[in-house]
Amino acid sequence: MRVGEEVKLIIITRRDIAQGEEITVSYGDEGYWARQNEKGLWCGCGASECKWSEEAVRARAGEAASVNGQGEEGRETEEGSMG
Ligand SMILES: [Zn+2]
User: Facing residues of 6 across strands?
Assistant: First the structure.
């Protein structure tokens, strides 16, 4: 957030953070990366659980991320219907 001439950021955590511990911040599911992905830009953080890498986004869209004809190993989606 901007306060006067200064840009300030406040992060409130759900648990204590150790000194030197790496933290990450999600920009939100319908926020920054969703719009960037539409432009063909992907998150490059490298985290295996990242939802906004090109591979993760294409997997959610049902596109094969593989170039060798072998699909992604062991990745399945299970969507149970409620009610
Ligand atoms: Zn990422």
Answer: 3
Task: Taking residues 64-68, report their average pLDDT.
Answer: 49
CA of 11 to the centre of ligand 1 (A): 18
Distance 4 CA to ligand 1 centre (A): 31
Residue 65 CA to its chain's centroid (Å): 16
Q: What percent of the chain is modeled with pLDDT above 90?
A: 20
**Could you tell me the pTM of the whole model?**
0.48
Are 3 and 9 a contacting pair, CB within 8 Å?
no
Q: Where are the domains of the chain?
A: 28-65
Ligand 1 centroid to Cα of residue 6, in Å, is: 27
